[in-house]
Amino acid sequence: MTSPLSSPPLFPTPPSRVYFHPAPEQFPAAPQNPELAAFHRRLPGYAPTPLVPAPAAAAALGVRSVWVKDESSRLGLPAYKILGASWATYRALQAHFRQQLKSISHWHSIAELAGQMRADLPLTLVAATDGNHGRAVARMARWLGLGAHILVPADMVGARRQAVVSEGARLTVIDGTYDEAVEAAARLAGPRDLVISDTAWEGYEQIPAWVIEGYATIFQEIDDQLGALGEGQPDLVSVQMGVGALASAVVQRYRAEGQHTQVVGAEPLRAACVLQSVEAGHLVDVPGPHDSVMAGLNCGRPSPVAWPFVSRGIGAFVAVADARAEEAMRLLALDGVVSGESGAAGLAGLLDLLTGPHAPEARAHLGLTASSTVLLLSTEGATDPEAYARIVGRT
Ligand SMILES: Cc1ncc(COP(=O)(O)O)c(C=O)c1O
User: Fold this and answer.
1) 351, 327 contact by CB (below 8 A)
2) Does the Cβ of 134 fall within 6 Å of ligand 1?
3) Which of 151, 209, 285, 365 is 20 to 30 A from 242 in CA distance terms?
4) 17-80+215-392 has which fold?
5) What is the β-pairing status of strands 316-320 and 17-20?
């Protein structure tokens, strides 16, 4: 008889999938829009989110230090997405006004901006989401006195649906995946229905590019925070990927010419659309169902505007099982960070790379040593509180 210790686990974690880019590229530094920071600062409740040290994660990864940008409370919402959704909405509204030969005049507060919208009502913001982006678009609509129509995939959990409805949005549940919700949202575009999507398709690229641009505020804050601590740029950033919009912002910031930082991109095994596209050498659709607990990452097709950056700038791609995300949530909790399933996925991918069977190759490929520093983006808090309590053992 085998002892309980030597017997295999009842539910072994499926092996991860890894792709090492033979020669990740760098890009000319993208000029930052000078209006962006001033825009975000005028939104209600703006404050930089914390950058916290994570010694438990550093010990687990075998590196000198880990910094976690904690996005569990961003402009009153439990995820970073409002930075991109708000900026893209603002730029789209400016373009919408211009089409009518009008312009948005200077404003100091969101109430003043909302006042300028009144002349042009009714106007509805439309978005597909697997949670955080749609809620952020709905919040922006609420601030501006606009309507919001948010389309969600059939399997979205009740807590996340409720969060969207709590913003006053109309919610439509699509009998299908996130990608089918994106297609349905695109069909709703019209003179009074402005689609604010964080992913792109042919002929619809500008707004998703503004979403990516909006994320730059995160990196500006990190620069200020690391600078104040006397720390240099991180040796590695690990970022979770759905359609790759956030990862594209990471690449534009940290793979700019002259930087030494490496980037890792992490996805769920069952929705590894970026990894599979990189392996194929072109964009591919990964068929659903996409049923990972990393709900924000359940996407079957990368965003074409993110693709040039993620496919060329990321050094290692890793697709992990849900159990890894849960392990990462527990580890971040030890460091005092409340991180949801998608929020912890960057750490999940890195844990797998640096402690799993690929570790020697991964460390060599990424140039990581015991004195390296790592940056993680915990992109959401406990957006499914029941699941969080079950996984981490507390709220
Ligand atoms: C919490 C969280 N993190 C990361 C992502 C990934 O973002 P992207 O789709 O830009 O790759 C999402 C997307 O919804 C998310 O909700």
Assistant:
1) yes
2) no
3) 365
4) Rossmann fold (3.40.50)
5) antiparallel
Terminal-to-terminal C-alpha distance of the chain:
40
Pairing, β 51-53 against β 65-70 = antiparallel
The answer to whether domain 17-80+215-392 and domain 82-211 are alike in fold is: yes
User: Can you spell out the DSSP letters for 337-350?
Assistant: ----TTTTHHHHHH
Determine which residue's CA is closest to atom 8 belonging to ligand 1. Answer: 242
pTM: predicted TM-score of the whole model, two decimal places: 0.96
Q: How long, in residues, is the chain?
A: 395
From ligand 1's centre to the CA of 271, what distance in Å? 12
Q: Which two tokens stand for residue 322?
A: 């849900």
Q: Any idea which fold 82-211 has?
A: Rossmann fold (3.40.50)
* Active-site annotation holds for 130: yes
Active site residue 285: no
271 close to ligand 1 (CB < 6 Angstrom): no
**229 close to 242: Cβ distance less than 8 angstroms:** no
Name the β-bridge partners of 173.
152
Domain locations along the chain = 17-80+215-392, 82-211
